[in-house]
Amino acid sequence: MLQTVVGTRLTRWACGGLLLVGSLGCGPVVGSEDTGGAAEGGGTEPQATTGTESSASDSSTSGGLAPCIEALEFGAAGAISPQVVGDQLFWATNDGRVQVRPVPEGVPEDVLVTGTSVVTFNVVGAGLLYASEGEVRILSFMGDPAIPVAAEQNNPLSPVQLGDRVYWLNAGSGILAGRLMLRDLDGPREEVADGLGFPRSLVTDGSDVFALVSDYINDAGELSGVVLRYDDAEGGLEVLATTSSPQSLRFHAGRLYWLEQQGPGLSGPLSVRSIDTDGGTALTHATLEAFGISLAVDDADAYFTTLDAGVSRVYRVGLVTGDTEVVLEDDNAPIFGVALAPDAAYITSIRAAEEAQPSDVVLTRICRE
After folding, report:
1. Is 81 left (phi over 0), alpha (psi -120 to 50) or beta?
2. Distance of CA 365 to the CA centre of its chain
3. Do 176 and 196 touch, CB atoms closer than 8 A?
4. Which of 6, 153, 203, 329 is spaced 20 to 30 A from 16 at the CA atom?
5. Which string of DSSP letters, residue by residue, matches 134-188?
6. CA torsion, ordered 235, 241, 243, 248, to nearest 10 deg
7. Are residues 159 and 138 in contact, defined by beta-carbon separation less than 8 angstroms?
8. What does the mean pLDDT of the chain come to?
9. 3-state secondary structure at position 331
């Protein structure tokens, strides 16, 4: 079945129902025209419109053939939260595992098997920092048992390590029930910030930690989504930017990037936004009509995933050029995650348990060159 989306010819992928830009079947496509490759970063500052008011016309959305698209993994357990660390790709599954495989080629192996659902994880040094079922733990890749960081936590997520400290978010239960938590690895845990409504993500730049929160009451008594900075050395919380229904905070090269739904609620245009870790004016890199899910960023591009009217898509926006294109589409509406390597984007897919099949494509590689 052929379809046309934003000027690009798409073919239904025979294995898993994916609609793939520039592919006529499973596996890589040799000799496809590359009209939308990654722009060279070269240290160039991102170019974007400023301010919070944007419309879909602010970004040029066009079609382009990916040089290759390849199915890497299949299964009913799905895949979520992909991370590329060096030449290794990590992801979690719906049945409580974290897996790893070399990129671009290799065989997946289990890093962690919990038997429960893994909420979020980060690769830190020679180990895995993860939050699952009310606990935060560190697992060494050297084969030692997992070390508990904190137990009896209220929906912990997004743990990060900064020196000898581990930070994480507790989503909590109820209105403004979220917390930012801290533990020195040789000391007790602390609550360093409260009143966080629906915290989404936590990242570090190696000096401070940054939280993306959906609901927060500022000093003026106003409720909004925010990007927060917590000073690791001195303590104290600072609002860097206000936002609306945000998702998926990422740090890259001195800037924080996130997806913003311009509401009300979860409706309205979706934007890719960023701000310097020291604050300043937020930039808007792309705006279109969809619901945002996940984001990944490097020097050249931001890749982000969306869901719109039962169709899942992966977009690429050039941070220098501002050009936006669809690189992958699935009309069976899985939830997509994305991670970037220099030569490829890796897309994870997960479906509801009652819909999942062993033949589902759960990991896809899209060439960037």
Report:
1. left
2. 16
3. yes
4. 6
5. TEEEEEETTSPPPEEEE-S-SSEEEEEEETTEEEEEE--SSTT-EEEEEEETTS-
6. -60
7. no
8. 81
9. coil
Tell me the two tokens of residue 282. 């937020």
Token pair, residue 313, equals: 């898509």
Residue 92 corresponds to which amino acid?
A
Length of the chain: 369
Structure tokens at 151: 């137990």
In angstroms, the CA 128 to CA 359 distance is 29
The predicted pLDDT at position 68 comes to 84
Stated pTM of the model: 0.83
Separation CA 2–CA 143 (nearest Å):
49
Q: Can you give the C-alpha Rg of the chain in angstroms?
A: 20
- Residue 50's pLDDT is what? 38
Q: How many CB atoms lie within 10 A of CB 326?
A: 24
Instruction: With H, G, I as helix, E, B as strand and everything else as coil, classify residue 41.
Output: coil
For residue 369, what pLDDT band results from cuts at 50, 70 and 90?
Answer: low
CB 200 within 8 A of CB 213: yes
Question: pLDDT tens, 156-189?
Answer: 999 999 999 999 999 988 889 999 999 998 889 9
Output the 3-class SS for 45-71.
CCCCEECCCCCHHHCEEEECCCCCEEE
User: In the structure encoding, which two tokens stand for residue 308, read together?
Assistant: 């719109």
Instruction: Determine the straight-line distance between the first and last CA of the chain, rounded to whole angstroms.
Output: 27
Whether residue 273 contacts residue 285, with contact meaning beta carbons closer than 8 Å, is answered with yes
Q: Which domains does the chain have, with CATH numbers?
A: 2-38+47-367 (2.120.10.30)
